[in-house]
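Long-time lurker. I teach an intro course on protein structure, and each term I like to show students one example going from raw sequence to a predicted 3D structure in token notation. This year I'd like something fresh instead of my usual example. Would anyone be willing to generate the tokens for the chain below so I can use it in lecture? Attribution to the forum is fine with me.
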Amino acid sequence: MARATELSVSLKFLETDKIQFREYQVEIAKKCVNTNSLVVIPTGLGKTIISLLVVAETLQSYPKDSKVIVLAPTRPLINQHRDSFSQFLAISDENMITLTGKNPSEQRPQLFEDHRIIFYTPQTLRNDLVAKHYDLKNTCLIIFDEAHHASGDYPYGIISDTYHDQNPDGTILALTASPGSSKERIDELCQILHIDKSNVHVRTRKDEDVKSYLQPMNIFKIGVDTTKLMEDTRLIINRLVEERLQFLSQMGHLEKKGEQLIKKITRKDLLRLNIELVKQASSGDKGVYGAISVNAQGLILYHMLELIEQQGLDTLLTYLEKLMREARKQNSSKANKILASDNRIRRIYFELKKYEFEYPEALIHPKYAILLQLLIDQLNKNPDSRILVFVKLRDSIQHITSRLEKQPSLKPTRFVGQATKSKKDKGMSQKKQLEILKGFKEGIFNVLVATNVAEEGLDIAECDIVIFYDIVASEIRYIQRKGRTARQREGKVILLYTKNTNDEIYLRIALNKIQKMNDNLKVSHEETNKKELINDNENDMDDAKVVLEQKKGKLPSKIMHLPPSKPRSPNQETLLSYFTPSKPISPISSTLKTADPEIIISKDVPGKFGLRKKLQNEGIAIGLQENGRRIDIFSEIGLFIINPRTFIKESVSISEKDLIRLRQARKLVLFIFDFEDFIEQFEGEKRLLKQRIAEWGNENWFRTISIDVPEELVFIIKNLYTPHKK
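-- Reply from a regular --
Happy to contribute to a lecture. Here you go:
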């Protein structure tokens, strides 16, 4: 572990006495500055620290009024980020704000303008961008946390597209522990977030530079057999499913034919069919309404099978009670009414009710006995243990928690989302969630029985054991769950499943996807390392200036410590101020660092022009400097970006002495007047102002160019650069 003073990182925006970095965090961060990047790193290895490093370096390289946006899927997670940034960044808390749907939409534009670091839930920012309440031209960095959510209609996509269009020079930092299993999914993630595949930075638990920070994680799989009552019930439901599948097949809605279609058709197949049937109905085909109802019945029956296999007959009984109640309602669906009136379903219901009164233990899934024994054994071994049990359904959580409460050594509590399902199954407010997590951390509770709301992001205490009560086929959710253990101390992950059922199939699918994802990430990691090795050999002396200096205990001399920001005086941005000698900025990103830059761009040049990335893509060596909105080409040509309003407000008379100084400074001086965001205060103002600018240039023997779109500036620079390069 090293302090900031031992590393080649910017100190200006960091609380150096509070934060410590690891080598791999700095190595990853320096590759992400000014470059759209995806960081894939196991939970517990400090994604937040990496983001803080990138924020600190990015703010140093952009204008003082630039903004940083942090996105995360949930309000609790956003609040955690806000707390971390407040603690570790040397930026006033008054310059930070959290914006969610709770903030009135009419107030958000001003709140956005008044703050430098803004934390959002994605839907809130998406809504504001679609409504054009404000733009992202002045945003230098957007952090997409839990980036694996970027797919389909999730807001991350439209936000990244808008940002890319409005600010081509802005940076995207995407963070996740689980991008997805297939190469196609990882590629899709990069495409959605405008990240080059060469900028995917991966660490796994096996990498040498992170191994020492992780404790051993032991994974165990425990399978159980179904009971006779479970098998008898499952057999009846199977027959009901088969009847529906045969009907749909005979009607031509399923490609597969023959007997035992239940072995050939999955629940996913019926979900896809439902979408297709609804499309046909909406286009006027009334003949499919019967098929829609039969398909809906099939989906309900598949859900019943899943309850039997994964959750237990007690949870199935709870579901059947709801089905019976719903069917009695006047507006209930046809599918509900048909199933509730089916004699076989009713027989199952009454049989389970009988067991509930006479022998309720027969309804409990065999996995529960294993779960109970695991909990008791662990707490007998270590009474201070914390155990997290993931359960898919809230009904099951209710059953499991109520039973665990009867055990003297266990202090269980349920942990669910905010939605209220019924009087018996109330949701938890954010305040209540935080209270429970605090109680879990302090030992008031030692067993947290949770839905997927506990899978990602929340600050849950270190767990000794994570137990999957049911299996999820998603590799992303699998990774998020097991990331809750083996951070500071050795941990166990225990997977409970039911043998010879879909539960066992889901387990194989999840583990295969994990292996596939690791293989794909390994290939990406190796390709990136090869590319970096080539670059390292070519720029050995240059890279030596940004490596860690832990042994020497000092910063490289090239790192610049800027004084605290001072408010700009009204007349500070004058034409002569562009020639003030400027020190270079030395970011940790190697992408903007070169021993001999060909074009040097002042950090105050707006990101909307996209100069940094566009010129780099042309193979041009770029450097950064501190003062003014200025661009130097080979130290011979000076371009100065002027706001036309500044030109109007300031005196434009220049003494002969100053004229000589300006002409001696560069062989060619160009003043570029940026009219893209210029709003006329009277009709024809822009045309008149352009004429006045041209006349001023002629009077002082300066070249002036007025531009209306950012692309014009890129065109001008490339046309000036090319002949001088030759």
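Some talking points for your students: The chain has a mean pLDDT of 81. DSSP finds 25 helices and 21 strands in the chain.
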